[in-house]
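Final paragraph of the annual report: two paired records, presented back to back.
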Amino acid sequence: MEMTSQDLEDLKYAKALLENPGLAAKITNALGTPIEKGFDLLPKGWHELVEKSTNKALQVAINSAIMTLGKRTKQESANRLHKVVAAGMGAAGGFWGLPALTVELPLSTTVMLRSMADIARSEGHMITEPDIKVACLEVFAFGGPSSNDDGVETGYFAVRTALAKAVNDAAKHITARGLSEGSAPALLKLITSISSRFGVQVTEKIAAQSIPLIGAVGGAVINTLFIEHFQTMARGHFIVLRLEARYGYDVVREQYNSL
């Protein structure tokens, strides 16, 4: 089945979103200061704090954010509202600094996951479907190019391939038992896989917030960029999934790579 011209344009738009510059570049452009300066200011043990916080944030989010949305489809996503809420949380995090991460990040992540589900719904997906619930969580793995990249493949379809088994197992678990068992092995495995990638973006966020004079105002700006980045990833992701539902995974991937 050949893609219509409109669907091909949608796919081009999705690729432009998914392959856009990473969070670090966006923060650097907004602040006018390379966030690398912030890495040197982070205290000892920050790696462990980020790892613990990202895992906790994803577990809290998946058990709360998606369940509060209704079943309606094709509704405009409330991106601006979610940005305002995230900015407020970022202001608090920027004021209190790294110690606030364990409190601020789960709250921000829950808001972001709700926003992702909202975007999925606006693209015509039924967020009551287990595979769409998991696809919302999967967005946190799409960080885009990173200044802290360790060589791991970060391309959109490469990340999806790496997560495919964990995503499939988690969707099967939700189908059978729902989200009531958030500590089930299938969900924990997926969260662990996503957390390692999401943690890179979280590290860039806290490094930027550690730069002197950033403060509460800077924290709000950084958190706004943080959620905006993942809203962009979500829009691209759910456009691709919408097209895959019509044309199939292989056709869409081939077209995507040829653009």
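The closing record of the year follows.
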Amino acid sequence: MVSNTIQFLFSNKIYKIKNPDPNKTILNYIRNDLKLTGTKEGCAEGGCGACTIVLGELNKSTIIYKTINACISFLPTLNGKQLILIEDLVHENKPHMVQEAMVKFHGSQCGFCTPGFTMSLFSMKKNYKLINKEIIEEALSGNLCRCTGYRPIIDAAKSLNNKKDKDHFKKNQKRTIQLLKKIKDVDIEIEHQGRKFFAPKTIPNLKKILKKYPNAKILSGGTDLSLEVTKFRKNIKTIVSLNSINKLNFIKKNKNLIEIGATTSLFDFQNLIKKYFRDFYDVLKRYGSLQIRNVGTIAGNIATASPIGDTLPLLLSLDAKIVIQGINKKKVYSLNQFFISYRKTKLKKGEFINSIKIPLNKENIFKAYKISKRFDDDISSVCGSFSFLIKKNKIIKASVAYGGMSEIPKRAAMIEKNLINSEFSENTFNKAINFMDKDFSPLDDMRASRNYRLTVAKNLLFKAFYEIKDKKNIRIHS
């Protein structure tokens, strides 16, 4: 069954929009069509959080609340969800407990950023009864304030700890679930002034669409794709969203492998990877913001092939593989062979990423570091990732990968060659770093100079060596 109408829940009613503009953002719909202006536009690229809204998503018989950046989310992606705005928090002329906390602790000066902060705190309160420092910092990492300062906002967040969730959303939850279940689970096919949007529910239907529209832009999260509209002022003619295909949203694991589906969010992935690779988790926690990780995917990060994509050097050093699906067959690539040149990969027209496979080599020692100007919500200047197999103080295997050092995320072949079968010693690493400029020729740009990047890359390799040598949270196998 196919529909040209998106449906979503807003203010306890099901809204229907026939053939909406696929290039229209949720933010522009809220401000221009709904005429609700509490949600603001700051950066138009998902970096400041002024546009933060909350989506309620049905998960069996419960509702999951997620913050997203409305400025970089296309309107058709609202289909099947509950839209919650800052205006919805007031009930019977009384402010929500989160709003009261912001007032009580003086969490606002100019007020421009305040709606976004409030929505982030609202989602945090919905998802956690007990709130600690880590939860607060993650919830607020994607919201920037230039005048209030964060202390009073953090104090407001702390005051919500262990308070009973008795708001009108909680009281109306059964009704909300009933209304969300009324929205038909069908394929979406939209056409608006020559622009098309497809959201198939199955892989066979996806293949049919890609066969007919091989030049379509594939949406898997869309935190990068949307910038073509918001920043470059382009019109995207055809968009094919993978996000409605349940068979692409999965995490499978056994003793040797983790496999992640193409539409699994970075947030869901970060909570799994923590058990296996703590450094991967630590880098992911600094990937964009919670709003970005709630919708962004590893498959999307790989497909955009950005030289500063944070997950890419980590996946390279872990010898990850990607499963590519075409119209007729599947192919498996080593990620190390997948990137061709700047923003270009071996992904051909009509193909899409099905999943990513990460080996669990339990004897290996894995380290990863992100260097950026800000700790949160910032792009890497350099990202380094290292995996070593060391036995009897000898380096049996070495995988060294960097982002921000080349036009593609890349393994350091010469450094690896000089490390393998060598003694695990300071002298070995001293010799190996001399090959850094043989493996990489980084550029000067606004984030860092060539010399800075080369120096930092060398230092990160040494940092990994010293942490392993000092057995900092490490066990070397013998």
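The chain has a mean pLDDT of 95. This concludes the annual technical report; the extension proposal builds directly on these records.
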